[in-house]
Amino acid sequence: MPFTTKSRLILALFALLLIGPIVLDDVRAQYADLTAEQIEALKQAWHVTNARQDGTSWTTSDFDDGDWSTASLGAFQEGLSAARNQVYGWPNADAEWIWARSGVTAYFRREFGLPRSLVNDEDTEIQEHFIVRITANNNYQFYVNGVLVHQDSTEDGEDWMTYDQIDVTEYLDVGDNVFAIAAVNTDDPENYGLLFDAELVVTGSGGYIAAPPVRQGGC
After folding, report:
1. pLDDT for the residue numbered 189
2. Do you know which InterPro entries this protein is assigned to (predicted)?
3. 182 burial class (0-12, 13-18, 19+ CB within 10 angstroms)?
4. Model confidence over 135-172: pLDDT tens digits?
5. Rounded CA gap, 133 and 173, in Å?
6. 109 exposed, middle or buried (CB, 10 Å; 0-12, 13-18, 19+)?
7. CA 147/CA 129 separation, integer angstroms
8. Where are the domains of the chain?
9. pTM for the predicted model, two decimal places
10. Distance (Å, rounded) from C-alpha 135 to C-alpha 41?
């Protein structure tokens, strides 16, 4: 997947299955023309749990999620709807189960850093744009650094098949940041999942992220 005017930092969790609980996938991606900071960020993991989280402290960078399970990085193929997407990589035999039944909320956290090189000379704002695409079957709340940025609580059975696209640049800090998501299936007990992708749009030489596709779910 080549790019000519921008590099893409894709931090994605793919947990979308047609039937049964969600399994977290271990993905080995190939990287080219990305900075060391971007590659390191790509290798980091999400933390997930089913244990009930009261309040919003779990959405901040100060929260200790050391006892949560981990979800390895995945990436999704652009140009396909969420219902017909596929994961990139290979299944992990040691993957964790994160949703067990309808009505159980799954909590996701993803810590990452943004280098000072992304800030303008006056240190007043991040120069690039951080675009998030997210969907869940079927309700979710999305936080950035403890701030509720977006939520989808519709009961439309087909609503999850389209992405919500959000520019989260204004909520980010130089240094430590955290994405946090609470997702719950309130409808079909056998069809649920979360699809998340973040794109850091930067200038300069292009790069690509690619790996052989393996069908993991969808309809």
Report:
1. 57
2. Galactose-bd-like_sf
3. buried
4. 776 788 999 999 999 988 766 555 666 667 888 888 98
5. 19
6. buried
7. 18
8. 13-211
9. 0.64
10. 22
